[in-house]
């Protein structure tokens, strides 16, 4: 792997190159085939290379799975913001397609290296499974790949790619995903918005939480 200068998130060109290096590492970690009802085939791309067609397909999955949450937070034009975020320099997309229909995306995740609460992490931007493929442990296997990648990078990635773990944002009302992440050893980041106890005694949840998971120690 080529290493460039240290992480500088204001340098878009550099961030794109980091994305390409990270994609090379992801190739080593995410399996080529994920067996579900069919054998899904791995594809990897980066924000620097993603085609408008692929971007649209991925956006449609996000829309199908989570539009209600996004509309509540960002209003009806939420997708405009999301499309900009999806092109963020440094992002890597790992997605899986059925062999008979390489145009269909069964599941995907996207991530980049960044800082959360002052420490370097592998940040999960999205993880989605198409509704008809949900409940087949595809999400679990994507998340396991992300955790493995973070651990490998910390052990072998050199000074630049040494995330202490993974991080993500989850809508507080997405109770299924929130419970799932907690089970996967995620905890609230010190930088996360927190629940507030109102004077009435009621608990007010923030719109979203930031969660972090430290790489698991090698010899435990
Ligand atoms: C969250 C998501 C990625 C999980 O992927 P998945 O492939 O359906 O989930 P898996 O089959 O890998 O199951 C993961 C765990 O969730 C549990 N689970 C699956 N479907 C569930 C449901 N409907 N309700 C509660 N738990 C459920 C499984 O039992 C499993 O638990 P286990 O690890 O103890 O076996 C998927 O449901 C999804 O795309 N949801 C919409 C998008 C989303 O919310 N993404 C996260 C944004 S932060």
Could you describe the 3D structure shown?
It is a single chain. The chain is of the alpha+beta class. The chain has a domain at 12-164: 3-Layer(aba) Sandwich (Aminopeptidase), CATH 3.40.630. Helix content is 35%, strand content 26%. It has helices at 12-29, 52-74, 78-86, 138-156, 175-183, and strands at residues 33-35, 39-46, 92-97, 107-116, 119-129, 165-171, 187-188, 196-197, 203-204, 208-214. It is globular and about 55 Å long. Residues 1-5 have low confidence and may be disordered. Bound molecules: coenzyme A (COA). One of its GO terms (cellular component) is cytoplasm. InterPro entries: Acyl_CoA_acyltransferase, GNAT_dom, NAA40.
């Amino acid at each position: 792997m080529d290493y460039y200068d240290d992480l500088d998130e204001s340098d878009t060109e550099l961030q794109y190159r980091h994305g390409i290096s990270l994609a090379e590492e992801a190739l080593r970690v995410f399996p080529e085939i994920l067996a579900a009802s069919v054998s899904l085939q791995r594809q990897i791309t980066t924000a620097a290379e993603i085609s408008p067609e692929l971007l649209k397909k991925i956006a449609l999955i996000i829309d199908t799975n989570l539009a209600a949450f996004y509309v509540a937070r960002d209003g009806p034009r939420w997708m405009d913001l999301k499309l900009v975020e999806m092109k963020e320099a440094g992002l890597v997309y790992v997605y899986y397609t059925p062999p008979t229909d390489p145009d269909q995306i069964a599941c995907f995740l996207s991530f980049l290296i960044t800082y959360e609460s002052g420490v370097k992490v592998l940040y999960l931007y999205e993880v989605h499974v198409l509704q008809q493929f949900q409940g087949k442990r595809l999400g679990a296997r994507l998340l396991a790949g992300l955790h493995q990648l973070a651990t490998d990078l910390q052990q072998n990635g050199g000074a630049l790619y040494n995330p202490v773990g993974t991080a993500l944002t989850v809508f507080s009302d997405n109770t299924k995903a929130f419970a799932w992440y907690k089970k996967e050893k995620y905890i609230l980041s010190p930088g996360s918005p927190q629940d507030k106890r109102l004077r009435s005694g009621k608990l007010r949840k923030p719109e979203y939480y930031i969660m972090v998971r430290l790489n698991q120690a090698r010899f435990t």
